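Handout, section 4.2: multi-component inputs.
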Amino acid sequence: MSIQTPSDFPDTDAATVTGPERPASEPEAKGLSQGQIVRKKFFDNTGAIISLVVFAVVFILAFTSVGFAGIPGWWKYNHTEFLPLVNGGAPTVTGPFSWGDHPFGQDSIGRDYFAMTMRGTQNSIIIMFIIGALAGLVGVVIGACSGYFRGWPEAVLMRFTDVIIIIPVVLAAATLGEAVNRFVGPGAQIWLLGLFLGLVLWTGLARLVRGEFLTLREREFVDAAKIAGASNTRIIFKHILPNAVGVIIVNTTLLMSSAILLETALSYIGFGVKAPDVSLGLIISQNQEAFQTRPWLFWFPGLFIVLICLCINFIGDGLRDAFDPRQKKFSASRAKESGKPAAA
Amino acid sequence: MVTYIVRRLVTAVLILFGASFVVYQLTALSGDPLEDLRASNAPNRDQLIQARTELLDLNTPAPLRYFGWLAGAAKCIVPFAATCDLGSSIQGEAVTTSLSRAMGNTITLVATATVLAIIIGISLGIITALRQYSGLDYGVTFMSFLFFSLPIFWLAVLLKEFGAIGFNNFLDDPDIPPSTIAVVAIASGLIWALFASKSWKRKGIAFVLGAVVAAVLLFLLDLVGWFANPGLGPVVILVTGVGIAFGIVLLTAGLRNRKALYSSLIMVALGLVAYYVVNPVLNAATIWMIIILAVITVLVGLGVGYAMGGYDRSQSMRAAALTGLLMGFLIVVDRFMVTWPSYVSNPRVRGRPIATVGAETPGLEGTFWINGRDTFTHLLLPTLALLLASLASYSRYSRASMLEIMNMDYIRTARAKGLSERTVVMRHAFRNALIPLATLVAFDIGALIGGAIITEQVFAFSGMGQLFVQALQRTDPDPIMGFFLVAGILALVFNLVADIAYSVLDPRVRVKA
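Output:
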């Protein structure tokens, strides 16, 4: 994530929420910084932590097994070798520690499917991070500027967004495919694909951030900051952005997980990662006809897509719950109970 | 407001010019339209290349070629001149023809999925927000994340395998083994238990009830051979209708509003009468007839609610109209179900009713009901795939939005005034929670016509998405531009609608004139 730096969060917002100073006996009065609160809330979230661990495992597995950037991995095959069929191409796993020669089986021309899946996972993760970082950054900057300043900057930026928004993503990707063939080698394909997609996918985020800024800039604490003489930069970064960070994070993570789905889908219909390299979508499309006879060729890459996507979504959800300064644990039934105070 | 809209429309036209230029150039860059001819071994290869070069005007540089296309497209805007020229594809079919056909197909495919996703997604989001951190919340969150994470092409293949091939095999010999009944019963019990509120006792009761009801239902359906001869019948319609009436009144007016309850129940009775009276008329049904009947139903509902009178008439009118509409829906569904045996035994369908590809059974001829049935079986799987994939964003957004609203001061004020929980949730929180969703919904509807490129590809559905992808594979500029024009205009219009809706719904956001 490129947007938030937890320790930068102002104490001013926390003060507006918690109200006047609490008695010293309460644990909140110990003076946790905003960053500490966020970290604590995030690490209390079981789902998010499990997802983080699973994602880390997938990440390490994908990058160490088949190697990355010229560094060889620990797996004995790579995704391009043609090997003699073992066990009729079926998976050779017999137990948790006896993987055999081809744990995920082999495809119809004998390539090791584990190596192919790992390579595809690696590519998907790289593309996802490029898209997330780039689209997140561009979207937040454009959305924040147009939402806060209004007037002509908003008009220009939003019209620019409108132009980008209506250009079909598939077309951009297809054009890129041709450009890769013509101008640069296939090695840069993954990076360029991420770059191109990132440059067209920020539009939804920009609109949402702008909407959030439009509402927030009318709020009292922004007026208060203005009257106190705060500069625009300070208001944007210290007062509005922390309040909008929930929206930004949820949407950047949703964007990243949908980026994986988009990349695999583009590869599936033939406009994304092209044949010498592998992508999870590409190998599914190459092998989907074999579903009846050799279903593992269909299951494994799909499971990895789902796994990565799920983890990213849960991490994003955990971050949202952790970051939202206004959100306390709310419970409808507790709020209804008459005897107790609503804030718990 | 009017000046604002006019100004936005003017800028929209400018945006369209800019974007269409970019798209045209991207298309020209995206490949070589002569690729297949260069590789061919045909003896008249050079003539073919020559002909296509002339057809696509390839000797003119792309930036200039764009203006040729623009001149043709501009004729579409001229009023009363029926010469809309969007060019033609490489095969020579006019783009306007193929566009209108693809558009019709796409709308039938995507509209249902989008509407269902909006309704189900928002209700799930609201319910989970009200029960934050409950088992239900975690369950729905996990499921929606799971569906959101499924690649749609992967899901589609699974649906084809189990939803179509598996289900068709089952329909060949519709007999449910007891083990399946047990599994379904336990699953349904678990779902009921999730929806039941906090105490373990109530969860237990809900589990037992849900499991028993599901088991008995499945057993009975199996016993009477329902899967071979489905239908609802008057008794089921009556019971469901009463349930619907109570549910709607509970949500919109509260059960203490007796007048609303009675007017809804009157609509149920009227619906049952209509079931017998209208049925003969329905034999010769057309789509317009159904629409007119629906409008009449709503009007009757409003009338009944109005006649009940009382302190808050509009509540009774709303509840009665909604109940009436749903009753009508039940009757139509029943009608569709009754045609099932004759549809399955149709020689064109050959006993494999759930289709995996295409939009209709080729050469099938029948009544409105048979053809509707046919559309339904073809659209079922792609709609399901689209629905599951787009459910998550709605439920997540509405949950987040609702959570935020429930912590607002005015909600505390409403509670402090002593309003009932229903009023607080439905009148104060729900409406405000929908504001941020208006943008999302408007935007999704705008993107709707762009179609579901992947889904159409997997299910071989000849809609807008497939038109676009096939043209792109051949580097055929005119269909791409036609697709872009339609999708782009709609996206722009609904962008504008989203902005206006936002400022209308939330007075804090002002639209500058």
